[in-house]
Amino acid sequence: MSSNLSRILDSVDPFIGTAATDLPAAQGLAASWWWPKAQVGNTHPGACYPLGMVSACACSGAYPTGYGLYGISTEGAPTPMYDDYLASGFTHFQQSGTGAIRKYYNYFRVTPMIEPLDALGNRWKLEEEEASPGYYAATLENGIRCELTVGAKTAVHRYTFPESSSSRVVLDFSYGGLAIEHGTTVPLRAGIESLGQGCAQGTVVMEGIPLSVYIDTDAPGWRQLVWYDRRRVDGGTRLDFDYIRRTTLRPFGLMFMGPTRAGQVVEIRMGFSMRGTEQARRNLEQALPGEAGFDQALADTREAWSDYFSQVEVQGGTGERRQVFATSLYHSLIKPCFAQDESPFWPSKGPFVFDIATMWDMYKTQFPLLTALNPAKGADMMEAIVRIAEEEGNLPIGYRMARGSDRFFRQASALAHTVLADGFQLGLEGPEWDWALVHMQDDLRRGYGEDYTERGIVHPISHTLDLATGYWCTAIIARGLGDLRLADELEAKSRHWINAFGPDGLLRDSSFYEGGRWNYSFRLLHDMASRIELAGGDKEFTSILDRFFGFGADPVVQLGTPPFGTEFAIGLDLDRFEGLNNEPDMEAPWAYHYAGRPDRTAEIVHAALSYQFGTGRGGLPGNDDSGALSSWYVWASLGLFPVAGQNLFLVNAPAFAEAQLRFGGNDFEVVTTGHVEAGIGEDARGYPPQYVQSARFNGKPLDQSFITGNQLHGGGRLEIELGAEPSDWATKTRPPSASDRTDLARDAGARFQEFLP
């Protein structure tokens, strides 16, 4: 590991986003943006393996990850549940940065204690917290030092005890979920067995998932036993529950106990599987063979994180900006969870991916980043998505570790189509593309799709845009596979997006999920040229965007803690950009590129990077949404932005002087001249945005504001000259639109060829 890489990895702060938003007062353009949604990142600082199946963290039962202070929050500043950071133990399988997704995990709670078993469930104050990639530690107020690390399918707990005549490590198999109303999880069935010699195993069925664990502890001489309803089952070695009801549930689990001298260390090694205890044991033994324990597990996980961080190196930037960037990259790689050969629903081997918990956000920024950094993982994800459709009947809108949990069509439709279209155009191997095409066609008629087919428009109106995009993406694959007739039919239906817009250049009145028609009106459609003409042309479209982003508007006052007064209605009436607090807005700044105004994009992105993200627990403007928001920050800082489903990356002024990237397995370099370092928050004052003056790609002039995904993945050198004033760069040649194509260029790749340098 280079010293530069080590510095970047070590600057990650997993505590960013774990508390209510606490950013310096925004200045200039950013001061006019109004944020209605919950002002908290909803992340956790627990130990995570990159894209791994397992995480481990202190658990207070707070919303939504189990860590922290807050109850459920949907608008404004979150309301605390607790006065301090507390933990009743340490749980596994946390979400990351989500909102109200209704599946909260936190299974297999492990609690080190010197108190009687009756105290199980108490919450101890957390002191001396530490966190870094793959590592979390804290000291409980009873004096026990607690350290956690994880592998892809394993966890290791290390506890350092004070002197005690009766110390214990208690594993609660009955606990799950959160300490909020309707937040608990009740196991349906369970079985636990103490195997002797520090070993035990068990399975619980939570949310329809048979989740198994194999446990190995290094505490020689300690007793081990099962317990039920906070009472030891003396002489018992197993518990079996064939059917548990919420009204009959009593706590149950395993316990290791014995005397400790001051400073005595006990390690608990845990292997997990969704396919039984035998596979859980194999997973543990494969990851940590022989006597390998905590130190080896942590070293392996740090190496896995280093492999990813070695692919994204930046030069320049203040310490705070680099810390936010590094932490954003870290948060981008926690989800989704890859669990090879672990599907509990179908018996065959192969990729299995879950915790695609907020696909309506992840598909825009996070999936393109994952696929760029690890194309094989991206291909596995696509193969898993197609397999979900094959086995369960639909392409997922989201997918979590729960049976039947995601028939969630309120937020969006046909999102997997964008991911698959990008993968196909990149030439990724893994999915059977002809089979994927079959499922993509079928899926377009599910949910709101039937009405779309019959009437060419559906409400909520944003689903009209989703489905139109889905038809376009499906047509790309059909044409690439040689089915030209089908591609023409699909493309014809993809033009129905036009029915969603009214004469004012905005979406028609409708119901909207977590937003309004202004938020959803500026997504990057596959035919932006026609969409701009619909609004009256470049000037009129730019004028509408300027109003949305608050150019020339007065500063606004953000919401405080609920309940609200008139300020909420006043804020909604602004119809204003919500400053990365709300995900439908994430791609809107780049809509200016299509109207020949990349200077406006530069101004908005500069303001967002300067004032919407910061260091410390309150450093995120809103939910991280499984890493989608953090991925936005990574792309924006690099001066790039993916247009999902179109194999396209828009170019903007980077926030760093240089970046060396390993994308698609090849080296991609971003180099600037004229770059001026700017800080964040208070340190951003006095630093106006910079604008692209000219660009070159692989030594040739780049007169347009984009490159293709194939160019990005193929490697190269992007040189960008920056200046203090807007220029005419990329004002004439626009990013490609569906209506730009001719009948002679009707394959998925040819539509970009005329724009290549």
TrEMBL record:
UniProt KW keywords: Hydrolase
Cellular component GO terms held in the UniProt record: cytosol
Gene Ontology BP, a term: glycoprotein catabolic process
Coiled-coil intervals, chain numbering: none
Gene3D superfamilies in the record: 2.70.98.10, alpha-1,2-mannosidase (1.20.1050.60), alpha-1,2-mannosidases domains (1.20.1610.10), GH92 mannosidase domain (3.30.2080.10)
GO terms, molecular function: carbohydrate binding; peptide-N4-(N-acetyl-beta-glucosaminyl)asparagine amidase activity
Superkingdom per UniProt: Bacteria
Basic and acidic residues composition-biased segments: 740-749
Domain Glycosyl hydrolase family per the UniProt entry, residue ranges: 279-723
Location of the region described as Disordered in the Swiss-Prot/TrEMBL record: 727-757
Every Glycosyl hydrolase family 92 N-terminal domain range: 12-273
Name of the protein in its database record: Glycoside hydrolase
Organism: Glycomyces terrestris
